[in-house]
Design goal:
The complex is a heterodimer.
Chain A: H1 3-13, H2 16-41, H3 47-65, H4 69-84, H5 95-116, H6 120-127, H7 136-155, H8 157-165, H9 167-171, H10 177-199, H11 201-207, H12 209-218, H13 222-247, H14 251-273
Helix pairs in contact in A: 2-7, 2-10, 2-12, 2-13, 3-4, 3-5, 3-6, 3-10, 4-10, 7-10, 10-11, 11-14, 12-13, 12-14, 13-14
Chain B: E1 2-11, E2 14-24, E3 29-34, H1 40-47, E4 55-60, E5 63-64, H2 68-77, E6 78-81, H3 94-99, H4 104-113, H5 129-145, E7 150-154, H6 162-174, E8 178-182, H7 186-189, E9 194-199, E10 202-206
Parallel strand pairs in B: 3-8, 3-9, 6-7, 7-8
Antiparallel strand pairs in B: 1-2, 1-4, 4-5, 9-10
Helix pairs in contact in B: 4-5
The chains are: A mainly alpha, B alpha/beta.
Chain lengths: ~280, ~210
């Protein structure tokens, strides 16, 4: 890094907003990739869209009845995450129910907005946040979620590994599969609900799914998958953040491109070391 | 002892198990045969609560499970070898799969005996179908070591070569708990104390 670039970055990091954004990305890089591993493992890739709309419905209700819309949005995400958990035992899994949640929540939110007369742009603006608008309270929320996600996955690592590998084998190994699934879904839902508000939908994928996909391509155990996902998340966030500042370009697309490039590299490595499934 | 009394399992309008009565005594090896779709796997899985029996009762060591907590306890009493010859890609090492049975040393000893002891560090998703079946049987031996009093094995030799079938059949025959083994392999049937045949969801005794 040249002295001029370092000086540029130094000036930018003197700004509170930039420091808070960096702290937000650091916190996000610590736990959102683990959330991404849970999303990939539970096959709920549609969870991001579903929870965005659930959060929107909660925000709309909050604005209507005069309750803190952000908190109500988060509460709705947590409740819906817990409510869909029993459906994970069905042969069709959670992918379909998440699609249903997404559609119903979107319709419900639009209906509430219409009935209540709440300004739709106001509701959407609470959902479509920006990492550079990160507040101290947002950092506290991220820190709480990071503690919950990291603490739970560290404590229940064996059970989580078995549930993500094979639910029946987990059940036959004394694991309370439904409780693990429900906790995982609640954490996923809360994390996505909180992060979408901070970062916008595009960045949530860069912070969750892409590091998880990078790790999945390289890891042999769930533990190594968690570690690799966090490393990929932190490296992607750090590089992307510095690059966006230096190039003076929007953070979201740069972060997604950097994380996506890391995922592509992991796929290339896997392609080199693993034979293709068929010709 | 494993006892099925008037057990009925339905999937929607499909009747998979139609009022089955059967008993596997402690120390007995009972082989369950029958054509595809006759209800064998459903009956075995019902013993563990992996599918719900709509009526009837299934006793293990004299106790019946009703609540979710009782079914969780039941699954500790019945070692299970699932019918799997492949798994999804989510990472789990063979050694961790063996550990999940409960008695890790017993599971590893079984893995050594079945010829997969050198593969402990391998992700389960990279094992062949036959290696996977040996792995699940080794895990079940670990569950027996941890206190399970019965074994349900669903086609545990279907992906094995002839030597493998003999190895697994010999191991199954040596176990001293109640064993219900779904299989069509001669090596297993020859060692059975009794053979039950299932057709259309019903069970009848067959001469060994």
């Amino acid at each position: 890094m040249s002295a001029a670039v370092a000086a540029d970055l130094g000036r930018l990091f003197a700004l509170d907003a930039v420091r808070r954004a960096a702290a937000g990305l650091l916190l996000g890089g610590l736990f959102l990739p683990i959330v991404g591993v849970l999303v990939v493992g539970l096959d709920v890739l549609t969870a991001r869209l579903a929870m965005m709309h659930v959060a929107l419905a909660g925000i709309a209700i909050g604005l209507w009845i005069g309750v803190d819309p952000t908190m109500l949005g988060l509460l709705c995400c947590g409740v819906v995450g817990a409510a869909v958990a029993p459906l994970a035992d069905r042969a069709t899994g959670l992918s379909g129910p998440m699609g249903l949640v997404m559609t119903l929540a979107m319709a419900f939110a639009l209906l509430v907005l219409s009935i209540s007369g709440v300004n739709a742009n106001g509701a959407f603006s609470l959902l479509w946040g920006s990492i550079l608008a990160t507040r101290t309270t947002d950092l506290v929320l991220l820190a709480l979620l990071a503690t919950a996600v990291l603490g739970w996955t560290a404590r229940r690592h064996r059970d989580v590994a078995l549930v993500l590998f094979d639910r029946e084998i987990a059940a036959c190994s004394g694991v309370h599969v439904r409780a693990i699934t429900m906790t995982a879904l609640v954490l996923v839902s809360l994390s996505i609900g909180a992060s979408v508000r901070l970062t916008g939908a595009l960045l949530v994928d860069a912070l969750t799914i892409l590091p998880a996909l990078t790790a999945r391509a390289l890891a042999a155990t769930l533990r190594s998958m968690f570690v690799l996902a966090v490393v990929a998340g932190l490296v992607g966030n750090g590089l992307g953040f510095l690059l966006a500042l230096e190039l003076d370009q929007p953070l979201g697309p740069i972060l997604v491109l950097v994380s996506g490039a890391l995922t592509l590299l992991s796929y290339l490595k896997k392609g080199i070391t693993h034979a293709p499934a068929f010709h | 002892m494993l006892r099925f009394e008037s057990v009925v399992v339905r999937y929607g309008s499909t009747l998979a198990v139609d009022g089955v009565d059967a008993t596997v005594a402690t120390g007995e090896l009972v082989v369950l045969t029958g054509s595809n779709g006759s209800g064998k796997s459903s009956l075995g899985r019902a013993a563990l609560g992996l599918v719900r029996a709509q009526s009837g009762s299934i006793q293990v060591a004299g106790s019946v499970a009703r609540s979710p907590a009782e079914w969780r306890a039941r699954r500790q009493l019945v070692a299970y070898v699932p019918q799997r010859t492949s798994v999804g890609g989510f990472p789990l090492r063979l050694d961790d799969l063996l550990r999940s049975g409960g008695d890790h040393p017993a599971a590893r000893a079984a893995a050594d005996r079945l010829g997969i002891g050198a593969l402990l560090g391998r992700p389960v998703s990279t094992l062949s179908g036959g290696q996977l079946q040996r792995a699940y049987l080794s895990r079940a031996v670990g569950a027996l070591g941890a206190g399970a009093t019965a074994l349900v094995a669903d086609e545990p030799t279907s992906a094995l070569d002839f030597d493998g079938q003999e190895q697994v059949a010999a191991l199954l025959a040596e176990l001293t708990v109640a064993r219900l083994v779904i299989s069509h392999d001669r090596a297993v049937v020859e060692r059975a104390d009794r053979v039950l045949e299932m057709a259309g969801g019903r069970v009848r005794e067959r001469a060994v």
